[in-house]
Predict the 3D structure of the following.
Amino acid sequence: SYRAPLLVRRGVLAVRHGEEGHAASFLRQRLIVLDAALRRQPGEWRRILVHELFHFAWLRLGNPARASWRALLARELAARARGELGWSAEWRKRLLTPADLRRSSARWRDYSCEAFCDTAAWLYAGLSRHEEFTLSRSWRKPRRLWFIQQFGDRAIPL
């Protein structure tokens, strides 16, 4: 479904007021809404759509796999890895505190999910470069390997 323009206000899609957003996933309704302007940007459309599709994959991933993903992210954070593979994860990463990881806070859970979806978009949208791909190549490699180990050549459940 397409809508123009998409705005987000307090985490909810809004018609007139709020911050600009490109898409939103409604997991219970199994619905993705994309900004109509993305139709004119095929690369960005793919990147955003893959990100949104992987919200459905995150939901079905299971607790052991999510824990494994979070452990990978925790190693990155402990090593002070900077950057991310999308703005959605980047701004959430900047808000994290050490206490968030210890308590498994909502901020930590949100960041983990967004980093998963942004990493999937980096891997599967077919873009070799993007201004939001700021995580260094050395930190991208473990993420790529995690996805290969987790999904291999199997279908990814959405």
